Amino acid sequence: MAETQYATVIADSSSTVNMRTKAKSNAALGERVPIGARVEVLGTVGSWTKVKFGSRIGYVMTWSLTAEQDQEPDEDLTLEERVTRLERRVALLEASDGAVG
User: Fold this and answer.
1) Tens digit of pLDDT for each residue in 64-82?
2) Roughly how many angstroms between the first and final C-alpha of the chain, as a whole number?
3) pTM exceeding the 0.90 threshold for the entire prediction
4) Which domains does the chain have, with CATH numbers?
């Protein structure tokens, strides 16, 4: 079974982040997610991340999320699970910073 991934909503100049119904900036607004809210990460589509907030599912810009560090320790995971976790972290970093390293 795949590990559930969570992230925290962040932003510099607002109290909420727009969650869209599709991975497009002109898509309908599905929800306004408060800064600091915890969301479940369901996947990525380009520069968008599909998330679940409460019972709602939608898309937020990946730069508006930061991966949570309170997940189970890497040493408790199989090699395949560790690789998957690292790939997710790299994808989040690349999307938010434009580069890794």
Assistant:
1) 998 876 555 555 667 787 7
2) 31
3) no
4) 5-97 (2.30.30.40)
